[in-house]
């Protein structure tokens, strides 16, 4: 967790994945590069059906499902009404049930630090992308400060790919923008300049302009800022 590592090669590989097994392999690769304990992409729908991938132990995955922990998990409950990344330390762990859940999690190898990115889409789509580790607060604060933007982008990629693999789960409206249009809108929303976005996506600024104008037209937006705001309000992108 020392010197910042370049995650672009992993992002490029992630963009080419074609199965949930590929996502699991990429999650392990990102975890190893970042030198943290765990990475989790977790989707829970209204019926309680769970989907995603994790580097947690099989024992914890099984226990979590068997005990329906998604119904009392402070991370899910705390993030459901939020749109920005959440450090677990800011959540409410004071209740008896929450304390018992946390103790059980720690006993099963879950780290004491967590950082979760809520991912929202049309028609109630809700997922979380989480990084988890065991370390002191100061070290974790420095880590999240260093990799915050990268993690949001990775979360976006994971969610987009998961939707591609499980078309039955994909809200119809989320197919409105193409993958490249979503990428462009996400990076612009994060504050990247057009030149930086074009470089990150390995395209020319002219091609980027085409993507932006196409997205603006599809969203019925007056300008790029309006397009970004509309995409965020519809849950098409997360920042």
From TrEMBL:
Keywords: DNA-binding, Transcription, Transcription regulation. The keyword Transcription applies. Signal peptide: none annotated. PROSITE patterns: HTH_LUXR_2. Residues 170-235 form the HTH luxR-type domain. InterPro entries: Sig_transdc_resp-reg_C-effctor (IPR016032), TF_LuxR_autoind-bd_dom (IPR005143), TF_LuxR_autoind-bd_dom_sf (IPR036693), Tscrpt_reg_LuxR_C (IPR000792), WH-like_DNA-bd_sf (IPR036388). This is LuxR family transcriptional regulator.
């Amino acid at each position: 967790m020392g010197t910042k590592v370049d995650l672009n090669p992993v992002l490029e590989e992630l963009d080419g994945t074609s199965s949930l097994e590929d996502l699991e392999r990429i999650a392990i690769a990102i975890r190893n590069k970042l030198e943290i304990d765990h990475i989790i992409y977790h989707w829970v729908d209204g019926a309680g059906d769970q989907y995603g991938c994790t580097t947690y132990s099989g024992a914890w995955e099984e226990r979590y499902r068997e005990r329906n922990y998604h119904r009392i998990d402070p991370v899910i409950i705390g993030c459901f009404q939020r749109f920005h990344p959440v450090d677990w330390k800011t959540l409410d762990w004071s209740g008896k049930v929450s304390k018992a859940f946390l103790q059980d999690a720690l006993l099963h190898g879950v780290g004491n630090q967590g950082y979760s990115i809520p991912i929202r889409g049309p028609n109630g789509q809700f997922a979380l992308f989480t990084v988890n580790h065991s370390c002191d607060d100061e070290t974790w604060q420095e880590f999240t400060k260093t990799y915050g933007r990268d993690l949001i982008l990775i979360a976006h990629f994971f969610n987009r790919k998961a939707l591609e693999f499980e078309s039955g789960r994909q809200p119809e409206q989320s197919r409105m923008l193409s993958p490249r249009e979503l990428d462009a809108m996400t990076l612009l929303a994060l504050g990247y300049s057009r030149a930086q976005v074009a470089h990150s996506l390995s395209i020319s600024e002219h091609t980027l302009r085409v993507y932006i104008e196409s997205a603006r037209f599809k969203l019925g937006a007056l300008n790029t800022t309006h397009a970004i705001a509309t995409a965020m309000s519809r849950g098409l992108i997360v920042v």
